[in-house]
Amino acid sequence: MPRQEGPIQSRAAIAGHPLHPMMIHFPVAALLGLVAVDVAYVLGRDPFWARAGVWLAGVGAAGGWIASLAGLVDLVTVAPVRRLVTAWCHAIIAVMMLSLASFNWLLRVGDAQALVVPWGLYVSLLTAAMIALAAYLGGRLVYEHAVGVDLSG
């Protein structure tokens, strides 16, 4: 397949600024912070950390699904993006990661402390690893394929 000439514009954008990369920061921070509060809970068994974990898991999962909608718009409506294997891999890893994050929230919502050890911590660590992989692939979309990049300025 011939390489795309020039940048690939986002359709889910405000004033030329793509929404997806703007929206993912808070969910990513919440889900990575979840690892830290899980470790704090494991070390000290303070119920505060378990309650904080419920909120971080919920904000991370819900915010991630909302941010993914903007990415989905570009994936299905922008033909050059649809042709990129990296875009599909990024999307599949992100859906898997958000499914884990949602599961992690469901583990905690009834009784915040009951399943943090071991399942909550394990799922948090796996989610963090998948965030790293999705972030790497997202970076390749921006830096190698210029998805959502405005080179006119």
TrEMBL record:
Keywords: Membrane, Transmembrane, Transmembrane helix. The keyword Disulfide bond does not apply. Residues 16-150 form the DUF2231 domain. The chain crosses the membrane at residues 21-43, 49-73, 85-107, 119-137. Coiled coil: none annotated. It holds the Pfam family DUF2231. This is Membrane protein. It comes from Caldimonas thermodepolymerans.
